[in-house]
Amino acid sequence: MTAVQKVAIAGAGVAGLATAIFLAKAGVEVDLYDAQPALTTRGSGITLQGNALRVFDELGVWDEVAAAGKAFEGLNLRAPGPGAPVVAALPDLKTGGPDYPSTMGMSRPDLARILLAEAERSGARVHFGTRVTGVSQTDDTVAVEVDGQPAGTFDLLVGADGLHSAVREMIGIQVSPEQTGMGIWRTFVSLPPDVDRSELYYGGPMYIAGYTPTGDDTMYAFLVEAAQDRSHVSPDEARRIMVEQSRAYDGPWNHIRADIEAGADANYTWFTRHLVEAPWNRGRAVVIGDAAHSCPPTIAQGAAQGLEDAAVLSELLVTRDAVDQALWDAFHERRVARAKAIVDASVQLGQWQLDGVRDADMGGLMFGVAQLTAARA
To answer: Hey, which of 204, 212, 219, 302 has its CA 20 to 30 A from 5?
Structure first.
């Protein structure tokens, strides 16, 4: 018998959809509510490491993910300036184990589409255009209000509703994301013929310039700068800024600039960080994924950590017979310190660059994170 028979989930991102799949496949009645009117069809790319790919296999979607994305091994470091020479080719640790590639890039909308389809096939009811607006609890149940109206009584509410989580606020967790001082331009472009893995450029006018293949003919590219208010920049001006800021970078960046000039979108966001200290639950409501922790994408573990949250929480809910303190203690023991290590390391990589630290052991830090994530959550 599972610890829950009926669960509500707020948020149709990676963590929310993964939780819905795991629970619905175990026979749990799942209702997922998302404020967006429909699954987004816009977005750039995402980098997924082996520990994320392992969870996709557990969800039953690995074959679809593998077909939709671009798997590769290793990471190249290039120098800015003429020719953009490769100065280091770094191996990747297979954090998911030998059965999976070390890294994969793919389109965010493609990943969302795959997870949504699997959630619905598994029996989860997904309600777009609906927002969780109220929560009230007893010792054994949680009553959920959606769009100001009662939506039902559940055994558990999972808040997987992102950085600015409404569930987090409603259950009284007073933590919110803070800026780290960096901002990132992103664009989704065609794949240059000489790119077959992620490549990063350190130096030049940007803190980081890089790109990741997301398919046989697509990739996403990004530039990291000191955070600025870009909220009023028009789409044409955003393209112009990204083109101008990338001119110090040669090689494949010439191809990227041509695509941006031809109309590829340029989008801007700030890096943030936050971590909800244990406990992540308040009674019969719990936050996971970006609602519980966020970090800059400097180590590319954001989605992976949300997937691990979903996997661990679901495992405990379907293998135990009560939602009790022992369950929450086990959940927090397996997730909080690991998430904190990822947040701290991701922020540290960015802070070294903000501070101009030239002898920082970036490779050592990233290798330590890889060793951590290679162990199962």
So the answer is: 302
